[in-house]
Amino acid sequence: MTEYRSIGPAEKQLRSLWDQAKHRVYHPKNWLKLQQLWRRFDLSFILYKDIKIMVPAGKVPDCETCLEICCTGPNSIVSLRLRDIAALIDAGLHQHMTHEKSRLTILGNTMNDSQKNFSESVFAKIFPVLTQDRTQTCTLLDENRMCGAYPHWPISCARYPFAIDAVNKVVFYAKGCGSFDLLPPYEVAERTRYLVQAAIGSYNERIKDIFLIYFAKKDLEKIGLTTYLDLSKID
Ligand code: SF4
Ligand code: SF4
């Protein structure tokens, strides 16, 4: 399955900003700032060729028959990247973004390692998440249990349940998804490639976001994306 979607004006501007800003990041005059960021974050982009795929051949999510849909429940917080914010704005869905992360506070000491890491990260502090209703369900999930944002959904939704272990450079199938299908051999390559690329893309977008926030804040302001960020938390 290949996902085709039109790219709107906010996302086009963001892409064009990245094309300019990546040269700024590596300019000698920014060397010190870049070194300081490297001390805080691993800023290496991951390439497809460097990844080992640990997902059994043909294993893909079977969302249509799934009883434990991952858009609801305690582990369903969706943190948004700049690319997601732009795509949601372009799709007229900006009202589904919030900085209200009270659920993390509610989880308190019961948070698992991944929730704890997220709650302490720069992403939790600065970036919005998708809104949820009182049942902890994403407000973009429609009455037919379909994604109301598709194909403009966040990249972390597009890649799920494929996940990346950046330290070991491995793509694996997330334990949280218990409903899966095995594709016939002629469909395996395209679908697996799409999900692996989405998992890698999701990771690389985080790095781009760090660069853009620390090196192109004013430009992000000009294209209206900082309205959705809490830059008072930047340090
Ligand atoms: S990704 Fe997995 S857990 Fe989520 S709806 Fe699809 S099958 Fe269910
Ligand atoms: S954006 Fe779509 S896929 Fe992602 S959590 Fe919401 S309903 Fe689910």
Q: Layout of helices and strands, plus pairs?
A:
Elements: H1 9-25, H2 31-40, E1 52-53, E2 59-61, H3 82-90, E3 97-98, H4 102-107, H5 113-120, H6 122-126, E4 129-130, H7 155-159, E5 162-165, E6 170-173, E7 180-182, H8 185-215, H9 217-222
Parallel strand pairs: 1-6
Antiparallel strand pairs: 2-7, 3-4, 5-6
The structure holds iron/sulfur cluster (2 copies).
Radius of gyration: 18 Å
* Mean pLDDT over the full residue set: 89
Number of helices: 9
Largest sheet features: 3 strands, mixed
Explain how this protein is built:
This protein has one domain. Helices cover 41% and strands 9% of the residues. It has 235 residues and is mainly alpha-helical. The protein has a three-stranded mixed beta sheet, with helices on one face. The model has no long low-confidence stretch (mean pLDDT 89). The protein is globular and about 55 Å long. The protein binds iron/sulfur cluster (2 copies). One iron/sulfur cluster (SF4) binds next to loops. The site of one iron/sulfur cluster (SF4) has 11 residues, from loops.
Features:
3-stranded mixed β-sheet, mainly alpha, about 240 residues, binds iron/sulfur cluster, single chain
Compact overview of the structure:
The chain has about 240 residues and is mainly alpha-helical.
